Queue: 3 jobs
Job 1
Amino acid sequence: MSNDRNLGHLEQVMEVLNNRAKTWNLVTISRINKSLDREILSQAIDMIQYRHPRLNSRIINSNNHLRFQTEGTAKIALHIVNKLDNEQWQEVVNDEMNKKIDSSQNLLRVVLIHILNDNHISYLITTVHHAIADGTFSIQLHSQIFTYYQKVVSGDLINPVNILPPIPPIKKLLPQWTKGFRGRINSILFLLQLAFEKIWHRPETLGFQKYVPIAKRHCNIIHRQLNPDFTQQFVNRCRQESTTVNSALCAAMMFTVGRKIIKLNSKDVRVNCLSYLDLRRRLKPAIDEEHPAVLATSLMGFHTIKTNTSFWELARQVKKKLDAGIKQGDIFKTVLIVKQLIDFCFIFPKQVAATVSVSNIGKVNIPKVYGEFELEEISFAASHALYAGVFVLHAATFQEKMLLNFVFSQPSISQQIMEELVNNFMSCVFDVCHFNLDMSFIS
């Protein structure tokens, strides 16, 4: 049975973004307490490519239709990079985020970093095309690679690798009311509603320190962590305040930017937050995390932060609006209009998409131990060169430690300004956790 098919509309958008803006592909970073063997890791990658039809696909243009095709797909290569110290993995990530995927060959790149000053540490970095994966799967992919690696080492690969059935385009998985004439009406109304809200609220953003066309933009990453004790303290405080970690992260991001851009003598600042959500468990039937597919969506929330707005009040507002969007089915409607939203970014490249953007996949439920080695850290980031002027965060929690990757488009935001924003964000989170106060926006 052939697994070839035309790309769905969301998958097509991701391929356009890959080609025109080198953007939205998913980079995942693992830190392992062992120097991995190149040959064994290559075998594990071969097995993963065989197991997942979409990883064994490339994208071709056939009769003006973009198609997944297995025939002619190149073997996924493993690239080895040597770095002197641990922090230099970020240099590799920056390189990966700014290179488009050659989708005519395959849809995944893999880099293994050997740390020369510490031969007990390796970093595995994968870059996967967003047309076939989301943040949830990109994390699972590393666990699958490590599992097969250990099976090769231990000689446990007795049975052949099972091939998973590919997932159809996301539009086919959405509720029935999103399809046909009713779906078109719903998408038009939702797009008009979103446009009205943006015009009505006129959210403020960081804007452009320096403007360049989309093709000349590049992105960068700043990495931070919350230690296990601090992470647990943050989680507990969110529960006490009747909100979620995701909503609190959104509030901290908006507080940080709001304090940066608020004008002298202003009484309030209007902002908006783009929050990314996992659709897998909200589909019927639910889709398992080990299946490669783009099964994520987003919701846009508009907020007015007054000088006396409290942090936890804002976090509860975020949660309330996200809950309403989920209940009303807006998470599915966003999928229907994503092409129009991206087209808008290309048509009006001087517009800033949002004040802040947060993608938090929460607790990562994959093993820590793989035979003779342990996975110490794992996090992810999407390449967001397109999103100039947006303060972007990708968060994941593994082994009780929260890992935070801040991504920014340059030169719209300079390295200096971004480091200042990140430091202020960390201070904001520290303050709301360590001081038993509900601090106000201007305190």
Note: The domain at 5-154 is CATH 3.30.559.10 (Chloramphenicol Acetyltransferase).
Job 2
Amino acid sequence: MALGKASVRGMSARDTVTFYLPPHLRKQAERGKQNFISKVGDVLTAAGLTVAFDNDDDLARLRALTRPGRGLYLMDPPTNTRGLTFRKTYIYPFWHIEKEAERWAWPVAQDAFDPKSADARKAANFYRFWRNRLFEEAPNHARKDGFVYVPLQGQLLRKRSFQSCSPLEMVQTVLAHDTDRQVVVTLHPSETYSPQERAALDDLLSGEDRLMIKPGGVPHYLQNCDYIVTQNSGVGFEGYFFGKPLILFAKSDFHHIALNVDDIGPKQAFQRVKNHAPDYAAYLFWFLQIRAINAGRPEAKTKIRDVLRNHGWPV
């Protein structure tokens, strides 16, 4: 495990902050090649703390339990109250540093969004810039081709604690409440689906002519769908850049301008989605630029320091 320069001066182990990272990212971070981690490290060392690195496997988490210092965990729950989790806020270079790993428990998820709180000119410029940066000209040519886009995640047959129903039941609900449109379901490219899950999808497909099941990661589904339905996939968040209404079937941090089945039920959600037109520019500016850490901005280190201080860290 590599230690920062401050360890040479004999600082206490209690003053060490360890990043727990997957091996490939750990190598980048140790070489100073990961922008956000480097900036967090600069804030920590400027406060007189030591920066160290370890892997993110089970053995590393056991080592973390015996270490007196603090820890920063990529997407994983901290092992104790001296740790925080950090993760990308859906797109680079936006990040969060939080106490919990579950996004829906973050303060931004609990807070109300007021469109009037965002400067309209700044929001419009931000929206225009990031639409072009992420998707080039595609959002400018978005249209509605008469289908619902349903990006699936994993565990299709199981209803987890943060979900309104299982993903398969979600697809069935879409078909039941929108009887006019085609329904394009995509499979997550990083998920491995069991034979039982595949069989359940095949059964559903055989009984419904309007249903299509496709591989995920196809940009034109975002561009051309009428609206998006998902548990809490980041694809739904990306749809905001295309001005696409969203129905959520699970808890999420980006729920504020979506239609939430937990809040209003499926009948109301599918009735309202046809005319749902929130202020996407104001929301994305608030959610990303105001509430997240933009590691590409000159003030990123100041914001990182403020966030760590709010978590009680001595920086």
Note: The longest helix spans residues 120-135.
Job 3
Amino acid sequence: MVGAAYAAVPLYNWFCRTTGFGGTPQLATAAPAEILGRKLKVRFDANVAGGLPWRFEPEQRSVDVKIGEVVTVSYQVINESARETEGVASYNVSPPTAGAYFSKINCFCFTDQRLKPGEKRDLAVVFFIAPELVKDSEQDGLDTITLSYTMYPARQAEPGQAERGAASAGGRS
């Protein structure tokens, strides 16, 4: 039971990435072969979780995108503290059913971002809306998708923790 519980989170994450369940965008390595005439508005949202002294916002609030068109947008993050801090972004797409068709080629999500005091950085996301969306009759009325990011404080090992863990692991047989 403990093993099943431990494996549940990575399996659920894999399931969501594979199917788009819960608004999880797909990951892509290349642009689609065609660009369709239908346009959707893609809105951008940015949030910062408590404990992270950052300002985080999209450079533009929305764009009109043709289905199949590759688009690059930027978010700006600023460390407003007097110390170096580290954060990591997670994301989702709304409505959740659109996650199966929202594909990202490049993204800053799930990559630790370490910022010096007062440092400002532009973070880009490259995406497209898959042409398969037009074959899904449930998406006929879809005209707006929201891509939402939240920055969280990155977990950091306490000084000496890695050494203690290695020493205790090495002492076991």
Note: Residues 4-23, 160-173 have pLDDT under 50 and may be disordered.
